[in-house]
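Posted in: Structural Biology > Protein-Ligand Complexes

Title: Requesting predicted complex, guanosine-5'-diphosphate in pocket

I'd be grateful if someone could produce the 3D structure tokens for the following input. Sequence and ligand are given below.
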Amino acid sequence: MSDRVRDAPVTLKIILIGNSGVGKSSFMNRYVYHRFTNMYRATIGSDLLSKTVHVDGKTVTLQIWDTAGTERFQSLGTPLYRGAHCCMLVFDVTSKASFSALDAWRKEFLIQGEPRDPTDFPFIVLGNKTDSSDREVSRGKALQWCEEINAEYFEGSAKEDLGVEKPFTRAARCGLQQYKKHTLENTGHFQITCKQPRETRNTCEC
Ligand code: GDP
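-- Reply #1 --
Done. Output follows.
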């Protein structure tokens, strides 16, 4: 692999999915802009935020995608999910239903997003609203499911700015591994196929 390929700027697509109202928009806005409001849809309405971070000695730009209210129209998932490097499954710890729904969200992502290696695709499960007193989903229960699906678990509160940084740092790290495995793998293959004509014919038309 050439240094030029290895040092190319890296953009990682991180996607947040889960039921409407669990706090996806709030969580990503807290992470990127360090702020919280009860009225994101009305004030910002953004479905994509970017943040540049340093991971394992590399500078990467995270493109963080939220479904921005399209949860009701699941067919819109296809273009949104494709090319993701990491998927965050978000639920609200005060809502059992939002936790139960994650299994369907994960399956939907695997079908629509068509990740190259579904058995190895990184999922991060995120329980939001831990500041609320009426909790319905325990940490133990969430961890148990994460073990079943081989995902990592984080929880926190966008409102109180608790545990917001860690899941994104982890997503960046997992995403970078995916990127190296698939994107750079492809570039490497391209170079190998070019090598033959260059050696034999002294010219390369690619
Ligand atoms: P989305 O539909 O999943 O993007 O959810 P939003 O980010 O729009 O949030 C839905 C509602 O939950 C809003 O009223 C937010 O103010 C509220 N909310 C988001 N995060 C938290 C949190 O950490 N704690 C509490 N108590 N409420 C939150």
